[in-house]
Write a structure and sequence with these properties.
Blueprint: E1 9-11, H1 20-25, H2 37-53, E2 58-63, H3 66-77, E3 83-87, H4 92-102, E4 106-110, H5 120-129, E5 135-141, E6 143-144, E7 149-150, H6 153-162, E8 168-172, E9 191-195, E10 206-211, H7 213-221, H8 231-234, H9 249-265, H10 267-288, E11 294-296, E12 308-313, H11 319-330, E13 332-336, E14 345-349, H12 356-372, H13 381-392
The structure holds pyridoxal-5'-phosphate.
Pyridoxal-5'-phosphate is lined by residues 14, 65-67, 92, 141, 143, 145, 172, 174-175, 195.
Amino acid sequence: MVVRAGREFLAIPGPTTMPDEVLRAMHRPAVDIYAGELIAISDSLHADLSRLFRTSGRSYIYISNGHGAWEAALTNVLSRGDKILVLESGRFAVGWGQAAAQLGLETEVLPGSWTGAVRPADVEARLRQDKAGTIKAVLAVQVDTASGVANDVAAIGRAIRAAGHDALFMVDAVASLGCVPFTMDDWSIDVALSASQKGLMTPPGLAFVAAGPRARAAHQKADLRTPYWDWTAREGAEHYQKYAGTPPIHLLYALRQALDMIQAEGLDAIFRRHSLLAEAVRRAVGRWSQAGALSFNIADPAERSDTVTTVRVDGSPGAAELKDFCRDKCGVVLGSGIGALAGAAVRIAHMGHVNAPMVLGTLGVIEVGLMALRIPHGEGGVLAATQWLGETVAA
Ligand SMILES: *Cc1c(COP(=O)(O)O)cnc(C)c1O
């Protein structure tokens, strides 16, 4: 017996659900790439991305995923043999650091934990030791999509400044841009990056990098630059050069539609929606956790991200069985645990095009799964989520 039919609901932390308007925006023939409306759309997207990153610096659009954005960020500002400091808080910053090592950079990982955020005091202490200034860049993620942590990027930026260190501050906002506040210039970020398929509600395939003035200065002497990622090449007089070749026409139409929707809703309203829905998820997980098998991966409630919640599921049946049940019986696809949490956790995404029925439906299905599989859990998770929204979503 199953209770699934129709459209499967994707609750994984990327790619995320795309609005029908975004899907429809792509349903058109290709257009001229040398003249006409595509040029204006492309120019508007570059400007709007800088606005979204909250920087007066330039943005670049790549036909790529987040991994490509990592490479774009590194190769444009660093040189072979440069040392970088990677702030561990789960999987993604470390993954970015591994890419850096393969590019020929000397990579040091500032050890962190899979269950908590980067500690800005540790960053400051490490940079103060580096009196000779050998560390050229500090790499961090805002939200680690594996652990579910939200790092305090503003505080890390302050720590770098407090240490009086010159390292570039480079931040991955793939799982957070357009969902939670991000202010590149105010937070002393030199290079920020993101991708289309998470909070920005657009198909996978576009990556975005923004560069501040210190990054652009470093770019002048960076020797890791390559033709495809190179910022200078993309600033050429011909529009064609912005994409180092044919623009991704249909993805650009999709992104234009998504950014129009973000503008129409308003960023403050979007941040509030994410925080309310994330807390609804946390209320449910909090109840379920009262019986032992389930627990939050991130110990400190203040460090849990508003875009994804990672839930440990101990015992057997456990995370894998719960995920299978939700997908096969109810048509809801949860994220698996990855990295250190492979097989031991499920991830519930609440980023981008999410609303109350999507989140409450997902929580309801998980609760059905917990009951059907007899996974020990505290009762009333969905009730706690609805009570929270009933109290906070003003009449
Ligand atoms: C998803 C993700 C990435 C990688 O993005 P891809 O598009 O899968 O290459 C990088 N960083 C973070 C924080 C992510 O969530």
